[in-house]
Design brief:
The protein is 81% helix and 0% strand. By secondary structure, the protein is an all-alpha fold. Helix 4 packs antiparallel against helix 7, helix 8 runs antiparallel to helix 14 and helix 10 runs parallel beside helix 12. The chain is globular, with a radius of gyration of 19 Å.
Amino acid sequence: MGYLAPVFLGSTAFVYLNFSLPIYVRAQQVDAVVIGGMYTVFTLTMLVFRPLVGWALDRYGRRPFFAAAFAFYTLAMMAFAGADAVPAFYLARFLQGIGASLMWVSARTIVADGERATQGAAMGRLLATSVRGSMVGATWGFTLLGFMPFAEAWTLAFAGYAVTSAVALGYTLLRFEAPPHEREDRGAPLELSPALRRLLVIVLLGGFSSALVEPIYLIYLKDKFDLSVVALAGAFLPAGLVFALLPRYAGGWSDRYGRWPLLAAGMAMAAVCVTALPWLPTLLLVALCYVLSAAAWATANPAQDALLSELAPAAQRGRLFGWKEAAANLGAAAGPLAGGALYDYAYPAAAFMADGALLALSAALVVCWFRPRR
C-alpha cells in the first residue's frame, strides 16, 4: 500500500481549492459563467488525458505515470499561488487536470491489480486517504484565512500545497514500487462488454449531474446565508469527516453484499440530498444534509470502482479506468457552464433539482442493469 502516502500528500489542496476558488474569483467581479469555465477547463483536460494515461499504464507500467502526477500537481499549486487574473487561473486548472488524470487513473489501476476479494475495501481506503489529506490541507488553508486577508492567505496556502506535492513526488520516486500486473498485448482491441458500456453510461450521467452544482453551490449558500468562507467551511467539516472515515467500511460492505445495492442506494440518497438542499432554511440543516450526501457518495464510489475492476480484463484495467474517468469528465465538462448559466440567468435552485433528477435516474438504471436476474 505504498501508494497511499503520496495520495495523502498530493491531495492536500483539494478541499481548500474547491471551497475557495469560486468565492475568491467571484470577489474579483467575475461572473458565474467564467467561474464555471474554470471547472470546464479542468474537466476537459481530464477528458483528453485520462484515456491516454490508461493506455500508457497498460503498455508501459504504473510507476512512472503515478510519479508524474505529483510533478504536475507541484506545478499547478505554484501556478495557483501566483495567479492574479483569469488566464492564470485557467492555466493552473489545466495543470491540475493533467495531475488529476495521472494520479487517479494510476492509483485506481494499482488498487485493481491487488486482491480481488477485497476490491471494495481497497477502493474505499484509497478514497478515504485522499479525503484525509484534503482535510489536513484544509486546516492549513483556512487557518491562514482566519489570520490574514484572502489574497495573502491564498498565496501562502498554495505555496504550502506545492511543497507537499513535491514531497509526494520524492516519496514516489524513492520508495514506491508498483505491484506486478499483466501487460497488454500490442494492438489488442479494447474489450467493452455490454455491462461495461452500461456502467460507463451511469458514470457519464453522474458526472454531468454532479457538475451542474459544483461551481455554484458555495456561491448560492454564501449569498443565501451571508457567511464568510471560513464559516461555510466549518459547516461542511462534519461531511468531510464522514468522507474521510466511511469509504473503507462501505467498500467492505460492497465486498460482502455486492456492488449494485451499494451503488444504487448511494446514488438514490445523494439525489434526495441535493434536491432538498436549496429549500433548507438554516445552515444547520444544510450541514446535516451534506453529512448525508457525503455518506451517500462514500457508499457509492468504492462500489462503482470495484464493479469496474471486476468487469475489466486484467491486461486492460488501465485503459478501462481511463475511459471510466473520461466518461465522468465528458458529463462534467458541460455541467459547470450549464449550472452557472442557470444560476445567473434562470432560477438558481433549478440546477439542484436537475442534479437530483439525474441521480435518481442513475440509481434506477443501476437496479435495472446490474441486479441479478432470477
